## 1
Amino acid sequence: MSDTAMFCTLAHEGVLAVRGSDASKFLQGQLTCNLNYLDEHTASLGARCTQKGRMQSSFRILLQGDGCVLAMARGLLEAQLADLKKYAVFSKSKLTDESDAWVRFGVQHGDGALTALGLQLPLETDAVVRHGALIAVRVSPARAELWAPAEQAENLTLRLGEQLTQGSLDEWLLGQIRAGIGQVLEPTRELFIPQMLNLQAVGGVSFKKGCYTGQEIVARMQYLGKLKRRLYHVRLAGSTRPEPGTGLFSPVHGSAIGEIALAAPTSDGYEALAVLQDNAVEDGRIHLGSLEGPALELLTLPYTLDRDREIQR
């Protein structure tokens, strides 16, 4: 399914905008990613954490107009907007929900369709290209997001449909899972630290940027190597979709040894991203929901974890 040339609307996410002369400076002290790395041609993944390093949200961020726009799970946006406004009181920045102002499409194996719109998108992950009011972002090999003003939704749906099949959000999410890109959703809010979702391996954490909320915990986990849980790609049979936050169990421990982060259907079951305890992975006997639940099969991720390389970002 994830190999199909298709597009779909990314209505499961909203857009939080931070605008004004202090927008980047304000966010630099709030987020795991380094806003100094952003420019007109570069986007980034990132997260916002609690003081204890637990992720309140994860997002894709890019520069736009007089500030930044962050795409995150729609169910998280209202709380994040309200909380961030408390810290922005003395900053020359304005925070708003711009979800209704944008239409966003996921485009898979569709570079030709983007080129037809005037968007010659580079192959490098996080590359950004712009044409008029349109923005394209490379999110992983063969996958891109197309951002546009909401009033262009109908026209763009027609134009993309001339070259691509209109697919489902599940097809897009399956591609995200196979790319190994975890995401905080409403049920998993404040459950994971960034390294549990391998966020540092996909460019969403900077260890050179200085202080931000939760930075001390995140840095300690990276430098001291104390993290015992991380993200894995798994497969399981069955007809019931594993919900985010569902516990995972192993005979190695009497309690849960991980949780589902994101799941999508395949032709013969489901694939998912799951946060798992290392010793349970070594044992290999992992079950969904209980020790008697469906067994999980471990698959491979398209990247490797490399602490020395990650801390150079």
Note: DSSP finds eight helices and 17 strands in the chain.
## 2
Amino acid sequence: MNTATIAPGLTTVGTKQLFVETTGSGPDVVLVHGLGGTTSFFEPLVASLAERFRVTRYDFTGHGRSPRAGELTLESLTAELALVIESQTAAGQAHLVGHSMGTLIVQQLASTRPDLVQEVVMLGPFREQAQAAKDATRARAALVREKGMAAIADIVANAATADHAAIGNPLVRPFVRELLLGQDPEAYAQACEALAAATNPDLTAIKSKVLLLTGSEDKVSTPDSNEAMAAELDSAELLVAPGTGHWTVPEAPDFVTAAVVDFLTSTTLTPSTKKTCACSSASPGCQSRRQQSITMQIRKAP
């Protein structure tokens, strides 16, 4: 394996100190976690990606091991991602893999700074919340400020993950719970408010090839909502991980890893055709670890 690992730690990015980890060699890939996440969310992906790519992941401001600095907004997090790409990648441009709120950050950057962005992967893609969801997200921020992360950690870990995944791997929910308990309450509350205030970036401005991957049991990023997003994109592929909720990577690590690596190493999308993204069963000769996925139409602008 030809990899070059840079020791993880706090790194100056613009005026901030961010916890950054980089490993592997090849084209740049930057990983962007979601609300309540850290670089550890992507751990199952990194070893496989680093065989072919230079992988950079970071805790965004106030999350994980990155200290809080200034007010946290979607705009500030988008500017932060741009600085990470400009200062931490070898080429000043990168493939992007985002999860949940991280996909909103990726969408915003891809629609406004296409010079920094190559292919895009969105795991549990996020769009502007409906009013009831905005109210609930703001209420969560208030609860965390009053009572700390313990007030919501168990609720989120159980509600946002699928029973099937939790039965298959009993460590899934404790892992998500631990990520949440480790967050700074004020930074998490600010991220909740940023999420509730977010509006939809202009997807028609994104010219990158995009993979939208969600879980069949994801109540936040449903398969139907992903189809609606794909309709606004020039070139999109959709996949659904069976028996999976919103925390896609720890819930379905093999499925997600195979999907992301296949997507980023592919070179073209065939216009007006379907791409078979999984075997229907683990039959002899099947080279895909992605089984029982839903394959959707791939579109490409003329």
Note: Confidence is low (pLDDT under 50) at residues 267-302.
